[in-house]
Amino acid sequence: MCAKELVLKHRTQILDALCDSGSAEYLARVLDLLLAHGQVQWEEYQAVQIQSRTLYSNGRQLLDLVHIKGERTCELFLCALKQVLPETLAAGLRFDGSGSNVAESEPAQSSAAQTLLTQRPRLVGLLQDCVDGALDTLVGAGHLTSVDCSQIQLAIHTPSQKARCLLDHVRGKGESAAELLLQYAEQHHNSASKQVTVKPSAGFLKYRSKLCSSVTAQSCFLSTYGGTGHMSLDDIYTEGEMELSPDSTDGRRALALEDVVGTIGTVNEEADAVLVSGDAGSGKSTLLQRLHLLWARGEALVEYLLLFPFSCRRLNAVEQNMSVKELLFQQCCWPDREQEEIFQYIIDYPHLVIFTFDGLDELKQSFSDEHRVCCPTESAPVHVLLFNLIQGYLMKGVRKVVTSRPEAVGPMLKRHLRKEVLLKGFSTSGIDCFVRKQHSDPTVATKVLGSLKANTVLLGLCHSPVLCWIVSHCYKELLGCGEGSPQTITDVYLMILQHFLQHKSSQRSSSRWLQEHQKAILHLGQLAFKGVKTSCFVFTARDLDACGVSENDIRLGFLVQSKDMSSSQSKRYEFPHLTLQCFFAALYSVLPSNGDRSNILMLFDMKETGGACFRACLLSPDQQNRLCEREVMASETSNLQITATFVSGLLSQRHQSLLLQFCPSHVIEKKVKQVAKSISKGMQNHFKSIPQPVEGEKKSMHAMPGFVWLIKCIYEMQESKIAKDAMVKLEVDHLKLVYCNIGPMECTALAYVLQHLKNPVGLQLDNNSVGDVGVEQLLPCLHICSSLYLRNNNITDEGIRKLIAKGVQCESFKKIALFNNKLTDASMSDFAHLLKTKQDFDSIRLGNNYITEVGAKRLAEGLRCNSSLKYLGLWGNKVGDDGAQAFAEALQGSDTLVWLSLVGNNIGSLGACSLAKIIKNCTSLEELWLTENHITRSGVECLIEALQENTKVKSVWLRKNNLSSEEKQEMASRESRLIF
Q: What is the mean pLDDT of the chain?
């Protein structure tokens, strides 16, 4: 189809794309390109851009003009569209064979005025950031007057519009004016500083000061776990572990706070939104609060002049339609004067503004791109504004930082992200730092940390900042519990419940502390349960009255007044943390003896949707779009799953003495059976979905996130019979739980359940957050693991030391993979011990760690004594020639080694000659990988000589070494098993 026909056929789509942003910028940029290429005359250019007409009318005028001009103009027009429109809009326009780019024309003559036309797109880009400077230069030279400047600097003009207006004026001022402007543009382009020259007015600066004061007031005290006392954020803030998402080009690297908004990890340059994702309680809100405070003080994000913070749970309460302007000023900080000027500044300099939206998953409406709003003064429902802001249709250029739990983020939203940052909670050192900050008395802090280290399960729980806060806050209860130390999440929340209630109780030592506050708990529980079902997290006085919540109930401390930056005078309340609301909802589901049994059924009878993201990888784009509705369901069930986990814990045998104060034993037993049946049914549904294995391969199950949730429910119940009944029906050789947000808490639950498997299983936990503490939690099930895959899990030598100490005692344990962790030479002594002790161990893969020739020599001591190892992978380390020689001496007599990888290890020809001994003397070797090293011809000659004596070796990989093309060709002709 010719270009002219394409323009006519796709007229509506093109028009929508050109006018998509509500700004004339796309239209103007396309015109610039056509003008520069000589396809549009100056008079036609002006006729298309008439300000009194609507944007769509101007767009139609351009389409008519292009179509009339014929095939060549249409072809260049389609190319210009592809060049100008962002990927999200251009992706919907398929113009096969219409070209890909429009090069700017070279000046047809030496006229500077003509160059202003032929180089117009480039000059607009150069000048839009320095119009003021250009005007000063031209006025100083007498080429422009103050009247000219006032016409160019109209407040309604964007920076690019001012640049175009400047070019238009200068063209009419003669050749010398044009030459001076071109000279200024090139000088500015070549200068070291390319920053926008911004001269804020006094009114703007006053508003900025007011905004900073407002943000400081909202941020200086820790609010995430609010209501229990004023804790200075400076005193208590502890940075959690952050990583880039796996799709980042910068890899899974650790990040600092300032990197959240920085350029590191950017995957989509066109997008404005940064997502910070993490599980409930991982510290997302506190991280944002810290960023807010540092910005307000001028200690971070200094490149942004304005920051507007929003809470999605509070935006839920906004019922009326709003424009972006109203959203900013009514919900954040109202300007005392000059509102229009301040908002125009935001429109003109979006790159100097940042919006933050905390808790996207707490919004009642799930993410959608169905409703389009492009004009910042157009009113729409608040959630529609938010979704359009994230997508960049509104306020393009403003940086947006959004937090959410992972399950609320599907492919539909991820298409619009600049990057994603994963928040992993506290490291072990972070726990130590946080606890010490909580207690001014170092003796108390030391005792609390001692209790945690003595109970590794509790230490694993404390990797969640909210649980670490609870444990620190309830240290007296913790230190006094002896062997009854908390083991589950429910135990920890019951501890804080006891802490609050006994401080309000008339008899603090009473064992009936729960019963004394029964009515209050049920009132709060009913409020919490209704909120969880309807995604409501901020409650009005009417909501409280409907559930019978009184002032006395509020004084218990479980409801706190909501911080609201708007001018609303009505009081609103919320639970200090989402998980606490879910806990009270669980109490409400469990406690009443005449309660509605359907509550528990509703919590557990949820369809499996958590694996939608994984399955989407295997589907077509149309099928992925149909999954969006299921992803919406998944995000909405998350809070119900947290509540169901607490229900499981409350119904455990260890807490039934508390429940007996409210319910007869037969009622409790009925609820326990109900939950156990629901869990069993859920597990069976997972097992039914396991596909039959391909002939010759092992039977594998890729567990979905819902499977992990059910495992956690079983652990919370602490019923070994339920765990046994669940696992007896799982018959697989390989269990995969990759990218499932597995941290230390989940490892504890997995070990509790998986230890009841009948037969050994390969356990794959790649790309999670296991860490050293998680490794320790897995030890109880290591005897049932035939293999353990722990790629990308932040594991250090300390975790490996404990793992191997247990592994040498486990008969079935025979394979381990630890790519991309933090192992050093120190851990190689442990692996040597493993190889010496277990003569049936057959696979060790330690790629991309920090192992040098020192570690290689230590590992070689174990290899020398082992007679079973088949696969050894150490790619991406730094063993060098000395390490290679140590391996050669240890492995040259092996009759089991099949595969050896030393890719990217700084090995030269000396090392290659040593490794040739393995080829010559190892009768079992099939593959040797030496890619990305520094081997020269002399080293390859040694390998060729060895290969002539060993016909069983299938391949030696030598790509990316120090060899010329001629050498590769010549040596490959001599030995076909060399792969260059």
A: 85
